[in-house]
């Protein structure tokens, strides 16, 4: 299938999977988040498979879609990327986040890019909501502001090689700046 058609297929697939879902106690359709992740990846010249994984990264975790469905429809590479970013919801918030931070330390470049793009999209959303709600934004989260700060800093530390990477330095610095504004 042509690359642009694969992107379109992933967008339709994720839109149907996330139908009716909203972002963190807001009225914003959830699909806006994976679309923003895909845009961040596209602007940083990510591969087609990584862009598709960006679109689908929350489908297994937050919908009825299975990892086998992802492989059947989008191939093993996309499956691996989505699986790398799928949390085990049977674990506590802290256990899930610690696993992500630890995993990213030895993850592939594409797995790290997916996590960084997700962090940036989430951080932009938090800042946008903070402008409207102020510190009340934290009532939407399962964790405290301090716990979220620990997690975001853990991700940044796990992908810190991007800080001096000519290709991804700008992306990393955006993430740092967003986190600094959120947690100042």
Structure write-up:
With 184 residues, the protein is mainly alpha-helical. It has ten helices and no strands. The chain has a single domain, classed as Hypothetical protein af1432 (Orthogonal Bundle). It has helices at 3-17, 32-43, 48-56, 59-62, 67-74, 76-84, 93-104, 109-133, 145-158, 169-183. Helix 1 packs parallel to helix 3 (48-56). It starts with a helix and ends with a helix. This is HD domain-containing protein. Residues 26-132 form the HD/PDEase domain. GO terms for molecular function: guanosine-3',5'-bis(diphosphate) 3'-diphosphatase activity. It comes from Eubacterium uniforme.
Q: Which descriptors would you attach to this protein?
A:
184 residues, mainly alpha, 10 helices, Hypothetical protein af1432, globular
Overall mean pLDDT score? Answer: 95
Structural class designation: mainly alpha
Whole-angstrom Rg: 16 Å
**Percent in strands:** under 5%
Note poorly predicted spans. none
Share in helix? 55-70%
Shape: globular
């Amino acid at each position: 299938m042509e690359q642009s058609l694969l992107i379109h297929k992933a967008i339709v697939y994720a839109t149907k999977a996330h139908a009716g879902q909203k972002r963190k106690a807001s009225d914003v359709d959830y699909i806006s988040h994976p679309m923003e992740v895909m845009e961040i990846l596209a602007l940083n010249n990510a591969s087609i498979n990584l862009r598709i994984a960006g679109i689908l990264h929350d489908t297994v975790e937050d919908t009825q879609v299975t990892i086998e469905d992802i492989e059947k429809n989008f191939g093993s590479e996309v499956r691996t990327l989505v699986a790398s970013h799928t949390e085990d919801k049977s674990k506590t918030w802290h256990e899930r986040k610690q696993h992500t931070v630890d995993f990213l330390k030895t993850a592939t470049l594409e797995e790290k890019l997916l996590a960084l793009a997700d962090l940036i999209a989430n951080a932009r959303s938090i800042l946008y909501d903070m402008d409207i709600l102020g510190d009340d934004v934290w009532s939407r989260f399962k964790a405290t502001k301090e716990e979220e700060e620990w997690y975001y800093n853990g991700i940044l530390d796990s992908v810190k090689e991007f800080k001096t990477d000519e290709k991804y330095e700008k992306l990393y610095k955006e993430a740092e700046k967003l986190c600094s504004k959120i947690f100042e």
